[in-house]
Design a protein that fits this description.
Chain lengths: 540, 309
């Protein structure tokens, strides 16, 4: 049984380990180029990072002790790894608690004499081993990167931070597995557990600056106990009690999940709503939206789109409200001028707040595009595309409708979040010009659509591999924008990143070259996607 | 008669001997064509080639004279399709799915939808994910029949339906035929095509090995005969009789197969004292099973075209 469950997560393990090694190695080995070689240069870099890090406190731990590579890696790499591992945790946990059931695998095993408890134990044990391998490989890569930068990390500290990382990963996995017992499908488990883990993560991260949340985080967030260990930082420590507590917490949750699983019916949630008799209907729905091209697709995804609009609008308002505080904090630092150069010219409050928000918003738009592309790929895999093509509908029309739906969805997300950003900024006394924001928002639409256009191209050719390839493209774009300036990569390399093509239009105006490239990617991606869809077999 | 479906050398080669090979087939308008074969024989591949979902490796296919690939959109105005694997519509309600597909297709009469739903007692108010396997199949039937198409492409359409609903479905097919519709029905169950088909094609390992009317298929039936004689059986005379084959003698008992009429056998045993004679006619199902098996078709079916393998 263990061997079977091990095989089921082999793909996730390979992907996560490869990602961890790449991410760790790049971040560690880039340190020397970014921070310089002398202690004085590194101290200056650390000071600059500590100032900049204040603006990332909602995402990363408090920036302290960044004047050496060890402290930098603790903050910059180990600070963000729980979130990155979290993606794997959610996908794997949802697969273990609901996915196997949906595919009928659990029925097969139970009918072969395997008890649900034994299955769950095997799944958990399999993930524990896989997570341990991924964590060890990532830490080894980080250490190798640090050695290549001229400093070997303290082995004990690396071991301690790895154990702490493993503890928070396992605790997160346990939360997902419990949620899986309370939801009725794999997608519901992914949705609910992503939300729960994000709330826990942000309660802890916001608790770093808000006292009332700091108290709450102690009781509800496993990330709080992970944060307490910072053995790589000078003067930092390893919180053994907190780490053991996370493992105990995970064990208790696994026991709860096993108990829930024993109590519920296979294929059902533990929380069982008495099913209401659906009112008898023997005629098609009269909703006109369902019968109109594009609008029918928007109607079908209305709840998801609403969630994206609300989520990004709240994020925009939050970032705008933090803007003045962040800029004031940064003003005292000598590094401010350099930072402002990156952010753009004009009013520093507008430039920096816009820089922070649109930096995050770019990733959110890319994620929105990936979610849409995943839907197209599943249309094919789950037979809906075949059904649509059984009507007098051309394949070109399918691609055009997808593009139109995406443009409208992206425009709604951009429009509402920009409105929210505008009012949030003005509430914080940041004088964002409506015209400039409109221009920046308008340019954000082809940016978001360009990812989907690449996705359309991939979905037309290799629907099953589309999401993973597109996610890799986003990651590569992100890495280029993160490391390019530090490693002084040439301009043409920077232009390879779709993220850098957007530029910083709020304060610097539109980068027309970048915008035309993005528009060309949009037109070319969907156009070529239509041609390729024409040529390939559907549902084969 | 107009040709509704025509294929010439239609081939879809997936490699390793899988796929469909050199299909030459004509189905006339108004005809109900049963397409029989075991799982993996190439039935769905044929239908998906005709629907323009997949591209042929070579050969061509047309529906109502229109090319299945280049004029797929035109063709589908006249085609109703029930796929072999039902699509997943998740949380959408049945009525929303119908409205969505009706919007794509146009020309759907709400009265027809109501009538089909009533016949199958299908509640369109439920969500797709709450439907049982059989109810999902009923929804697929509504989607296939709701626009009263000229041609119905039905890929194993009764999977999951209970016998009562199966009967209702056969009735609907007969009504569609009476209306003038052409039906291309794939199945691996002989009794299903026996109910409604005018003509049957048998496919095995990607190759069409026989097309015949139901009447012709009945004619190929072989009788297994056992005769007990009072004395020694007249083996030489029986062996010489036309249509008699597979002769086995065990003492005074002789077993053989008889294809066609019994006249020659009766003449051969004339003059011998027969103690007992029994004749067993294999069911049509057994005849088909012979075709389904991978072994060569036995000599007991001499007049049936041998598989082109």
């Amino acid at each position: 049984m263990l061997r079977i469950t091990w095989r089921l997560q082999r793909g996730g393990l390979i992907a996560m380990t490869a990602f961890g090694i790449f991410y760790g190695l790049i971040q560690a080995s880039a340190y020397k180029s970014a921070a310089g070689t002398t202690p004085a240069q590194q101290a200056a870099f650390g000071h600059q990072m500590e100032v900049l890090g204040q603006s990332l406190i909602y995402l990363l731990p408090k920036p302290v002790g960044l004047d050496n590579i060890s402290g930098f890696l603790q903050w910059r790499v180990y600070g963000v790894l729980p979130l990155l591992f979290g993606i794997w945790v959610v996908i794997s946990g949802a697969g273990a608690s609901r996915g196997d059931e949906e595919r009928g695998l659990l029925d097969e095993w139970v009918s072969a004499g395997v008890s649900p408890i034994r299955y769950l134990v095997a799944r958990v044990a399999g993930f524990f081993v896989a997570a341990a391998i991924a964590v060890v490989a990532t830490s080894a890569a980080i250490d190798a990167g640090a050695i290549s930068a001229g400093t070997a990390l303290d082995l004990q500290a690396v071991t301690e931070v790895s154990i702490a990382l493993l503890a928070v990963v396992i605790a997160s996995y346990a939360i997902v597995v419990v949620i899986g017992q309370l939801t009725a499908s794999r997608s519901a488990t992914i949705g609910v557990s992503s939300g729960v883990l994000l709330v826990m993560f942000f309660i802890n991260s916001l608790g770093r600056s808000i006292d009332s949340l700091h108290q709450t985080a102690q009781f509800v967030s496993p990330f709080y106990y992970y944060d307490r260990s910072n053995p790589l930082t000078s003067g930092g420590s390893f919180d053994a009690v907190g780490t053991v507590g996370l493992f105990v917490f995970a064990a208790v949750l696994f026991a709860v999940a096993a108990w829930f699983m024993q109590r519920r019916d296979l294929g059902s949630s533990l929380i069982h709503r008495r099913s209401r008799e659906a009112p008898l209907a023997q005629a098609p729905a009269h909703n006109p939206l369902l019968r109109l091209p594009v609008l029918s697709a928007l109607y079908e995804q209305r709840l998801g789109l609403l969630a994206w609009i609300i989520g990004t609008s709240l994020g925009a308002a939050y970032m705008a409200s933090l803007g003045r505080q962040l800029v004031d904090l940064s003003k005292s630092a000598t590094a401010f001028r350099a930072y402002l150069t990156i952010a753009g010219h004009g009013d520093p409050y507008v430039a920096l707040t816009g820089f922070f928000w649109f930096g995050i918003f770019q990733l959110l738009l890319a994620a929105y595009a990936i979610a849409q592309v995943a839907r197209w790929a599943s249309d094919d895999n789950e037979g809906r595309l075949e059904m649509v093509l059984s009507a007098p509908v051309s394949r070109t029309r399918v691609v055009i409708e997808r593009a139109a739906t995406l443009v409208i969805g992206t425009s709604l997300v951009v429009g509402f979040s920009s409105l929210s950003f505008y009012y949030g900024a003005h509430a914080s006394n940041i004088n964002v010009q409506a015209g400039d924001l409109f221009q920046a928002s308008l340019a954000a639409i082809p940016f978001g659509v360009s990812f989907a256009a690449v996705g359309a191209l991939l979905a037309s050719r290799v629907p099953r591999q589309t999401v993973i390839v597109l996610a890799t493209l986003v990651f590569a774009s992100y890495i280029i924008t993160q490391l390019g300036p530090l490693l002084k990569w040439p301009d043409w390399v920077m232009r390879l990143s779709l993220l850098s093509l957007y530029g910083n239009p709020l304060s610097n105006g539109i980068d027309w070259t970048g915008l035309w490239i993005l528009i060309a990617v949009c037109v070319g991606g969907f156009g070529l996607g239509a041609v390729l869809l024409q040529r390939r077999d559907v549902g084969a | 008669m107009t040709i509704a479906i025509s294929t010439k050398g239609l081939t879809k080669d997936y490699g390793s001997g899988r796929g469909l090979f050199d299909l030459d087939l004509d189905v006339e308008e108004g005809e109900v064509f049963g397409y029989l074969g075991p799982n993996g024989a190439g039935k769905s591949t044929t239908i998906r080639l005709l629907m323009g979902m997949i591209h042929p490796t070579r050969g061509s296919a047309s529906v109502f004279g229109l090319d299945c690939l280049r004029q797929a959109v035109e063709i589908k105005k006249d085609v109703g399709y029930i796929p072999g694997e039902l699509p997943q519509f998740g949380g959408l309600r049945g009525k929303e799915i119908i409205a969505y597909m009706a919007g794509l297709r146009g020309g759907v009469d709400e009265k027809v939808v109501r009538e089909i739903c009533e016949r199958f007692q299908l509640n369109l108010g439920q969500r797709f994910r709450e439907y049982s396997r059989g109810t999902k199949q009923k929804l697929a039937i509504v989607l296939g029949f709701m626009h009263q198409p000229r041609l119905l492409m039905l890929d194993e359409p009764t999977g999951g339906l209970d016998p009562l609903n199966q009967q209702e479905f056969y009735k609907m097919c007969r009504e569609a035929k009476d209306r003038g519709a052409t039906i291309f029905l794939s199945s691996h169950i002989l009794s299903e095509v026996e109910h409604i088909s005018d003509r049957v094609g048998i496919i095995r390992s990607g190759r069409l090995i026989r097309t015949a009317t139901l009447h012709e298929l009945h004619d190929i039936r072989v009788h297994e005969v056992e005769i007990e004689f009072a004395g020694k059986p007249p083996v030489d005379a029986i062996r010489a009789a036309a249509g008699v084959d597979h002769i086995e003698v065990n003492g005074s008992t002789l077993r053989c197969t008889v294809h066609g009429t019994f006249a020659a056998l009766m003449r051969a045993i004339d003059g011998s004292e027969v103690v007992n004679l029994s004749s067993h006619e294999p069911s049509l199902e057994e005849v088909f099973l012979t075709y389904y098996r991978e072994e060569p078709v036995p000599a007991s079916l001499p007049s049936v075209a041998a598989p082109r393998r």
